[in-house]
Amino acid sequence: MLVQDQSEVDRPSEAKVKGSSKPKIKAKAQLHDDSVMGTNNSSIVSKRSVERIYFPDEPHFFRYFVKKPQRRAPLINRGYWLRMKAIDHVVYQFLKLKSKKPKVVINLGCGYDPLPWQTISRYPEVCQDVKFIDIDYKDLMLKKRDVVMKTLELKSMFSNLEAGNSGDVLLRSDQYLQLGCDLRDLPRLDQALRSVVDTDACQILFVSEVAITYMPSEAVDALIKWTSALPQAQFCLLEQLLPNGIEHPFAQTMMAHFNKLTTPLGSVEKYPTVAHQEQRFRSLGWSKASARNLWDLWGAPEFMDSSERQKLDEVEPFDEWEEFALFGTHYYVLVAKTENLEGSGLTPGLEHEMRQESSSSTESLLEIEITYNVYPTSQGYRRFAAPFECKSSNNKQSCIGNFAGMGLNTRVSGYDVYTTCDQKISESSVGHQKIPSSRMCHTLTELGDTGALLIGGRTSPDNALPDCWLYHKYLDIWERVEDLPQPRYRHSAVCIGPGLILVTGGRSNSINILADQLVWSRASGWVPCTIVSPTIPPATYGSTLICFQSSDPVEATGCLAGGIAADGLVQKQVWTWKVEKASNSKYNIFFDLQIGAELPIQKLSTSLARFGASVVPHNDQIYIVGGIIKNDLLADDHQVCRLNRDFTCSFVKLSFGADCPKPLLVGVSAMSCDNSILIMGGSAVCFSFGTFWNKGCYTLSLPNEVQKMSTEDASSRRLAWQYSNTIDAAMPAKQAHEPPTIDQPHNLVTIPRRKLNSVVDFQNVLSAGKPVVFEGLDIGPCKEKWTSDYLKDQVGPDRMVVVHQASTEHMDFKTKNFAYVSKSFGDFIDNIESGEKLYLRSLSAEKPSELPANIENDFPTLAKDFRLPPELEFVAKNAHSSPLRLSGPVIMWLHYDVMANVLCQVRGSKRLLLFPPSDVRYFDFEPGASSSSINVFDNLGGPKTARTHPHEVLMNPGDVLFLPPLWLHTTSPASGVSIAVNVFFRNLQSGYAAGKDVYGNRDLQVYEKGRQDITKIIKSFDGCSPDVREFYLQRLADEFQQKSS
């Protein structure tokens, strides 16, 4: 997935930055104006991205206001598409009203938005005798006027176009006008408008899209009241909401973002919900007002049909539904009217009805004790992972693993281990295993004492995985079993009996939704179910699949609800199902749609019908945790619910405070163990405002079990879960790289980590000549930005690069067990993402055989994201080369570099083994060679390395390793793809080899001269007998060794 622009912000309108009449305040306001003006391009850059991708067949008008287009992330594109669609819909509905009066569309706080040109181009038949008026900050409108006057494609659409020389009217024509006016100065605004249109004789639509929200609420209320006094007017307002209050994680992130930019939202806390906004307009003089949040509007049939939603999936891969719903529920569009004008197309939403329906079906509200344990730094951060019960050190205590998923910067492999606070994990239980590859949106379904079955998942929305793995809990090993008949992710899986798992739905790519049902068993592998019912559910993914415990060996029952179907909507239907064993290896499945308010299960559809929820079986009950629902944001008291076998439901009340922050129950992993539920991980990209992560795990103590125990017994069992450690390994053959196992010898040294405080501090490290890892240095936004999609977009997917293509995981420079092949950069990225053994060490783009690599010249579009911090000034001033390194699952050969260098880890993790220069004698380096064929990962602790002095380091994103000259080192990726920038620099004043040194590893001049002298000495004995020659050469060798020591 692409990383969005974290500085994205809609440009506040001029009214919010205007000061009062006091000169001192005016000066401050002007300074504020300047900073706000700098953010003006962010919103239109995003809209330009949408225009380019989603409207290829329409005239493009944002292009004239955006000089450098950028492709935004799919979430940003779809969010802005929906905003643009909402405004366009309301404007069109207004324009097609039957009326003899002229119509006027006034854009309040318009910025560079080309709404008039778009509307006239799309709907010329309803734009006759319509005037469009843009109003905003005067300095900005002057710039917009200049663009219009200099662009033939813009000004040619209007007749009698002329620029104003003074006053507030900056541009006028028969169809379009520009006003530069302070929206808080209502008398002046009224005068300016009346000077260009007869406001009493027109039908007027006021539009404001995320503009007046930056004004103080009192000023906005006055503006709304003033507009309501016009005889025939409508007001369309699109801006932010706080549906669950300011403490909701998305709301926190959004508000913090705008506050940081010194552009706080002026009205959202006073009018936080749709109901508040509707009441606001009615109280300020508007006779009617209806509002809907954008997630609700997304599914409204009068706003958009299913075919239009489906076509969006064909534009670009999209699987950010939870984040899209969070965005949509925190924005709304409102249409108010001063009289009964038909055709706005905005009917009342369903939010209140749905909330009442959920509340009426609640039989009770459970209060559950909740405990929070914060994560260690950079640990525990996973989303869209999968939980399972894993082996503990003594095979008695319970441990829970959270496998794979998306980490802070990229997909992560391995799994996090959680224990109760009284447990300790022995060192022997923490090691490297042969485990499945990194992935997300997979399932891990418990099979009791047998273990758990890992099914599918994805790397990207168009790269589903077919592989399945059986985790043997007590052996603590992973066994690959039969692949799925078709790759899938976002499917639902549940255990339906001893050794049996039912799988339904899912996606095989970003377009195709799977409609089949499969049963897995160890004996038969995957067997498709035969549907024997007259009705069947629609194909969905991310559904809630529940199975009720049964002692019947040939029949299982449960229900299926929610999920997203091909129409892009969360389904509200609830189906019961029954699976029966028809023969030794065949299964029948029967579905029954629950219809009618008299059925308890249908009343609970808003509790069950979720997308992306965690389903947690516990005894005879099912707990449903988090996810998203249709139309609205889950209420705080509905985030977790408990379903009984008779379909009665209790919602869980969770209490939070300073010591227990409110979690975001999106992308979490949840599992029951003993009498508690552990919630791990969880995160969401909050539109363009930043990413929110749950910074700890939560333990829910289940009350029905606690009440059955004595006080003493309960206290001993209600221990909170906490993060313990990470089992970090990579993939076995065919799926991924298996990281080398390192036996821990007694002399393995961990490279020290430290902060770097100054240039002088680095000089001291340089003088010491020992490897050090620097933490906390600022290497630029590359850590966040350099996703696979971003790299391909910036470098160009068709650019050809030369890469190492290995035949085995350990590359050997001496035997050349790899080939140099040319690949397109896009194919290379896709290949290493899928686990192919490839490695790129960038060369000079201009003269690869003559010049050293330089990221600024070779990858200028990436170089802007990477920088050496000021503390490494010496490195920058003495830099020799800066190659970009991208690696799949391969081990780099053991070698040394003659030049000192810093290795800056950008994304992924990398394990290095290092040896001091004095160990060179133990690794069979041939004379004049700088590489060895020994795979030290396999041999560490063995006889070949018994006398060496190994050092080890695990490089994480943002780490910078100082590597002194001549230190032997080798690397292996520890978590999928590794991306790094290596900067070589000259730390000696003289002595480097003369001539070309493309790779920075030519030996020093004195060594090259010494080898020449050795050749001459040996040649001087050519006239001697072999015995005499050997005798004296040995004596010279001994003398050389004595004098050198």
TrEMBL record:
Catalysis performed (reactions): 7-[(3S)-(3-amino-3-methoxycarbonyl)propyl]wyosine(37) in tRNA(Phe) + S-adenosyl-L-methionine + CO2 = wybutosine(37) in tRNA(Phe) + S-adenosyl-L-homocysteine + 2 H(+); 7-[(3S)-3-amino-3-carboxypropyl]wyosine(37) in tRNA(Phe) + S-adenosyl-L-methionine = 7-[(3S)-(3-amino-3-methoxycarbonyl)propyl]wyosine(37) in tRNA(Phe) + S-adenosyl-L-homocysteine
Keywords: Methyltransferase, S-adenosyl-L-methionine, Transferase, tRNA processing
Top class in the EC scheme: transferase
Biased composition (Basic residues): 19-29
Pathway: tRNA modification; wybutosine-tRNA(Phe) biosynthesis
Single GO MF descriptor: tRNA methyltransferase activity
Family, as annotated: Belongs to the methyltransferase superfamily. LCMT family.
Name used for this protein in its record: tRNA wybutosine-synthesizing protein 4
Organism: Coleophoma crateriformis
